[in-house]
Amino acid sequence: MTWTSDKRGKAGGGVLLALLGAGIPALVGAALHGNTGEPYRETRLHFAAQRPDGREPVAKGEFTRFLDREVTPAFPEGLTFSDAYGQWSGDDGAVIREPGYEVVLLYPRTEADERGTRVERIRRQYEKQFRQHAVRRVDDEVQAGF
Question: In the chain, at which end, N or C, are there fewer CB atoms within 10 A of the end residue's CB?
Fold first, then answer.
């Protein structure tokens, strides 16, 4: 029996083995430690700007003053807000579109109950002040690092 040797095959196999050897621990590490940062709750609030009584929508200046009076004192460590546009189907099936604002709050998961009370107070105040039917709230569990 005659054995032949192909050095290119061995070298290629060696490179492949080295790449796999380096990559597998990294993949396993990422799978085991995939979370980055600390556990936080992210709350998104969607504020409709259209007023039900037919008056002009809530202007950005009015909304900013609301943020300054109601939201910032409750979440002094920071927040994000942006213009938003929502749509839904009305009772007659027609698509209704309206402008609004989105506020994103991020706080430690361990403070979720107490912070949730603050969020509800903000929602009620906006509904009362601007005669809105509701402020949509979406909560999500996230990992955050700063």
Answer: N
